[in-house]
Write a structure and sequence with these properties.
454 residues, Rossmann fold, Alpha-Beta Plaits, six-stranded parallel beta sheet, 13 helices, Trk system potassium uptake protein TrkA
């Protein structure tokens, strides 16, 4: 695909990095020559210095032949204008990042009137991810498939969990109800077989029906009830969206925000929340606001350093659930190295959603991709396919299909039935099939088998 990315910031860089691996032709437009040169040197892609709203610059970038234009500058209005201009000049599809809450009610209008094919709000998407963790605090990440029927959850084995030293095939809690579909150990990703032995500090991804995953955690003694009293540091856009989302869950949110004007605004727009004007990095303030009694600590300030440091303080004060927003990718590694394992990155969430849409565009005439998530710090993918007539191994037993290494068929959803497949199961027309893979660029379910064995 010929892709033009307008904006060479963190999201633009992440998208260019992902898409360059997919062998797309990438051109990045930005006014900032330093940011542009950095992205060109690191990724070996085309770059044009200029304003993405300039018709001259758009023509220079080859707008009339572009398959996709992605506008991710720091301005909502510029992103909308770029998308409108790109569509008028011949681009097939457009994506715009639109962040301001006042536009969130107008998404359909933006798509219909301006011709924007996909509108993404990173802060709202991040809030939705955090809301999943509030509903299911036993885990450290939650991705959903098959229209909410299947969860893929990540968690870390701790001392005393009962899994340390166990081979997967010997774990009585698993049986046929859920599947350990991936394991991270010392930075290396494993697609495990039954004889794989688990160890303390392994990060596991488990897939299955939500209720059965809950039963698994209860048997392990790791199940936690839904969060009811979170303490949130930072009163920005993510907090605004999050409190609105979780309000229906009867959650009492307490927000600490340094800016007085923001506090006044939060009081007006979020009447059910408790808003405190103060410095969320002040340890004495956190303790006086009953940090140790909070069932979750959520760090959402605009500074990664503050989020990491306050999260560490919460962990040291035995808060069970700590969720940390991190913007810069190098801070992900730092945060994990110091014991923070529930990290929210709006940039990565945005890039993930755009990547899913691009895979859909590439493959919409074939076996359709319904969902895609980057997992294990973007080293692996979980992909949901909707099975159509062109699948070459329909109605064949899985044990008779030569599936490529580093790919696992994790779940088959057939109508309302969720199947953790064995070798005797088959893939049928209309199934939703969820696979886990370490391979990049997988866009067709037919590509999971060795060539010549379809």
């Amino acid at each position: 695909m010929d892709v033009i990315i307008i904006g060479a910031g963190k999201v633009g860089y992440t998208l260019a990095k992902f898409l360059s691996k997919e062998e797309d032709n990438i051109t990045v437009i930005d006014n900032n020559i330093d940011a542009l040169n950095s992205i060109i040197e690191k990724l070996d892609i085309m770059g044009i210095k200029g304003n993405g709203t300039s018709l001259k610059i758009l023509h220079e970038a080859g707008i009339s032949k572009a398959d996709l234009v992605i506008s991710v500058t720091g301005s909502d209005e510029v992103n909308m204008l770029c998308s409108l201009a790109a569509k008028k000049l011949g681009a097939k599809y457009t994506i715009a990042r639109v962040r301001a809450p006042q536009y969130s009610e107008e998404i359909l209008m933006l798509k219909d009137e301006l011709g924007i094919d996909l509108v993404i709000n990173p802060e709202k998407e991040a809030a939705l991810e955090i809301a999943k963790l509030i509903k299911f605090p036993s885990v450290r990440s939650v991705d959903t498939f098959a229209k909410g029927k299947v969860d893929l959850v990540g968690f870390t084995i701790l001392e005393g969990d009962g899994l340390d030293g166990e081979a997967i095939q010997d774990i009585k809690y698993l049986k046929d109800s859920i599947l350990i579909s991936g394991i991270e150990r010392d930075g290396e990703i494993h697609i495990p077989s039954g004889d794989f032995v688990l160890h303390k500090n392994d990060k596991l991804y488990v897939i299955g029906e939500h209720k059965k995953i809950e039963v698994f955690f209860k048997r392990l003694g790791k199940f936690q009830d839904r969060i009811k009293n979170p303490l949130i540091i930072g009163g920005g856009r993510i907090t605004h969206y999050l409190v609105n989302i979780i309000d229906s869950l009867r959650v009492t949110s307490k927000i600490i925000e340094l800016d007085l004007d923001k506090c006044i605004e939060l009081n007006e727009t979020l009447p059910e929340a408790i808003v405190i004007n103060g410095d969320g990095t002040d340890h004495e303030l956190l303790l006086s606001e009953n940090l140790q009694e909070a069932d979750a600590f959520i760090a959402l300030t605009g500074r990664d350093e503050e989020n990491v440091l306050t999260s560490l303080f919460a962990i040291n004060n035995n808060v069970k659930n700590v969720i940390t927003k991190v913007t810069r990718f190098n801070y992900n590694v730092i945060a994990k190295n110091v014991g923070i394992d529930t990290i929210i990155s709006p940039k990565a969430i945005t890039a993930n959603k755009i990547l899913k849409y691009i895979r859909f565009l590439k493959n919409k005439k074939k076996c359709c991709i319904e969902n895609i998530y980057k997992i294990f710090d973007e080293q692996a993918e979980a992909i949901e396919f909707l099975v159509r007539e062109d699948v070459k191994f329909l109605n064949r037993k899985l044990k008779d299909i030569n599936i490529i290494n580093d790919i696992i068929i994790a779940t088959i959803v057939r109508n309302d039935k969720i199947i953790i497949p064995s070798g005797d199961d088959k893939i049928e027309l209309g199934d939703r099939v969820i696979i886990i893979t370490k391979r990049d660029k997988l866009v067709d379910i037919n590509d999971i088998v060795v060539r010549g064995n379809k």
